[in-house]
Amino acid sequence: MAIRIVTDSTCDLPEDVRRAAGVVTVPLRLHFQDEVFRDRVDLTDAEFVARLTAGKVPPSTSQPPPGEFEAVYRDLLRDPGDEVISVHIAAALSGTISSASIAAGAVDARRIHVVDSRSVSLGTGFLVLEAVERAARGEPAEQIVAFLETMPPRVGIIALLDTLRFLLLGGRIGKVRAMLGTALSIKPLIALGPDGSVVPVGRVRSRAAGIKRVTELLAEHRPLARCGVVYVGADDDAVALAEQTRRTYPDMDILRQHASPVLSTHAGPGTLAYCYLEASR
Amino acid sequence: MATVAVPETVTGAGLRLGLARALERLAQQRDRINDLNVFPVPDGDTGTNMHLTLAAALAEANLLPAQASVAQVAQAVAHGSLMGARGNSGVILSQILRGVAGGCATHDQMGPEVLARSLREGAEVAYRAVKRPVDGTILSVVKDAAAAAERAAADGRTTAEVLQAAVGEAWDAVERSRELLDVLRQAGVVDAGGFGLAVIFSALVEVMVGSDDIAVPALSRAGSNGARPGPLGVLATEAPASGFGYCTEFSLVGSELEPMEVRARLGSEAEDDSALVVGDPGLMHVHIHTQEPWEVLTRAAELGKIERLKVEDMTTQHHEARLRVGAGNSHEGRLALGVVVVAPGFGFHQLLLGLGAAAVVEGGQGMNPSTEDLLRGIEQAQATQVLLLPNNPNLILGAEQAARVSRHEVSVVPSRNLPQGIAALLAFDPDARLEVNRQRMQRAMGEVHAVEVTRAVRASQYQGGPIAKGDVIAVLDGELVAAGQDLTEVVVAALSRLPIDSLEVVTLYRGTSVQVGDSELLEAKIRARFPNLEVERHDGGQALYAYIISAE
Description:
The complex is a heterodimer. By secondary structure, chain A is of the alpha/beta class. Chain A has helices at residues 15-20, 45-54, 66-76, 96-107, 122-136, 141-150, 165-169, 207-219, 235-248, 261-267, and strands at residues 3-8, 24-26, 29-32, 35-38, 60-62, 83-88, 112-116, 155-160, 187-192, 198-204, 224-231, 255-258, 272-278. Chain B has helices spanning 12-36, 46-61, 70-84, 87-103, 112-129, 138-154, 159-180, 182-187, 192-209, 215-222, 233-238, 259-265, 268-272, 293-301, 316-319, 346-354, 371-380, 396-405, 418-427, 434-445, 487-496, 516-529; strands at residues 246-253, 276-279, 283-290, 305-313, 335-343, 359-362, 383-389, 409-412, 449-455, 460-462, 465-467, 472-476, 479-484, 505-510, 534-539, 547-551. In chain B, the strands form 4 sheets. A 6-stranded mixed beta sheet of chain B has the order 13-12-9-16-14-15. Chain B has a 4-stranded antiparallel beta sheet with strand order 2-3-1-4. Helix content of chain B is 49%, strand content 17%.
């Protein structure tokens, strides 16, 4: 009897963390015209950014097919007592939850618990970590799932994008559309709303001002339980931001991760983001 | 074409042939289906997704021996599509195919009843797969088609007639989707996934009855309504009539480039604004709101032939009203919190409204608005609470006076120039509280430098030497830092005083006294002198000041 945790490639947890905890990661799909790649399986983050920057036509992305979830679930549920907790990118952003739910229904809905993190990247990753830790402590699956369902209101992302273009091309612009009306070139600051869809929280004209602003916005969510820095091709800035965050939260393990190619497609090169989990009150 | 007897049933081989034709038809219609895609996410890939999903399905079926039963073929198709499903529409298609496979599971071939039952199961499995099924999508198309098939089967029709009934109803359901979903009605398109499914059904009929014109009449209906469907089609309706400037529309004929590439070539407005570039390389439709239509047209002319050109000055429609409700918040009723900005010149007005100002009050150096003007602006904002940006040191007291007498709650954010005001407006978040906004805006103001360039009204002195009447002078953050006869030199001298290494963007707002060509030259000079800076040019439209420049 075991509880196994499944997530998807957008969760951005470091591979060693996922591997050590036995987390199974199902890759989303990236399509560069007629070429298909499994997110982070067939393409490294660096290869991807090079393609994204060089290519004229940005790639499109797609949820994993239900069949892949089915195969993973069947493989994990070997013994009658086994259960799966499957934690994924917000349904507001991706059809991944839909593929996972279809597969869960086809395999064994009672033993597979699909959780909508209502977030993405490390926002989803924090739920995965929580599930891993609780499962290791021997908590029953239902109790873990019930706790995970309480987490999304405390999970947040604050991101500085270099441009609105990639959000717009990917169709995920949501309420950030309101920022389109301007002739000035701006860099949007975005966050995720309660369901995980993208909402605007500010705009700046220079990157330096944006980096300052994301830090100020993060401070509004103190005290924090977890925090990480996620970026797309902006390594130096991410290093500096993570360093600065470590000074502010000396006792915290600040993760620094390149965003998955799928997420990078929608946020665009230059993206710099904080993912955080507020401490519970 | 030789007359071929219409088969009485759908065999395994027949289903495979039909799906192969469907794949061909989907490939032909792929871009068109992509362009229809506005729901649930307008990412323009429904056609591609359905095509690739069906390709994966057929690839698996093609591994079977030629004499495989319809059940075996349907099973392979279902499994292949399940593993190869791409995107939402692909996943739903895979569920339809899974249901169909269940419906004919024990049969060598499909007669009328089995066919109808298979379609019914396809619809049911697909509905179950979707958490909140929405009418007016691929789901209603498969459901209605299945119902028509069942009616025909109950009437004792042949297999081909049952299939034809299903296809006819599928196309009708596609047409109805336009009315069922608001987002489709607004974009003037039919549902992309439903359209794709009808294409697949049509191909099956086509193969079965040996006719190749079945899809044609129905297809011609899809893009009707004079709509401009496109991957961003929903933008055309959702975006406010903002932009101002010029609404520029034309067809581009004979270009060899894809719409995406054309978009990239037409300049930044085509990429970032609510622009539409849709169609095929041979013929595409362009719709752009731009401040400089001539620039866009010059670039477009290099790519192909421009036809049906229409340029409308969106500015004139609004020009008479100096106080306007911002386009960014084309609200009905009152705003909770709005920003009122004082600015000179029409260029600035457009820009500020585009950035979300609730109202703009005309005013600037030498023509400060009265308290009454400010109060009128505050009223026009139609907001319960107002943040007021005076953009002039001499107007801060007047603004505070207006704030006191206004019957609304007004808070002055003491911006001393337009660059500060724009920086503050950029930091505004309509969903945050007034006090939070005031602090954020004040902080943002501190992060921008302003250079204001004008001419001396009398001879005087400054630390750099004497100034003659009529000399160009540059004021940096309130302090006179450069003077001389040459406008460009004075601007560059003033900018040199800035901590250039910590700056990224310089924005030039041109006054009415400066020609566009001269501002282009200035831009080039600045770029050459400070190669690490981005330089943007806009038409501020202010009098007195040749340039207002922000550096941040």
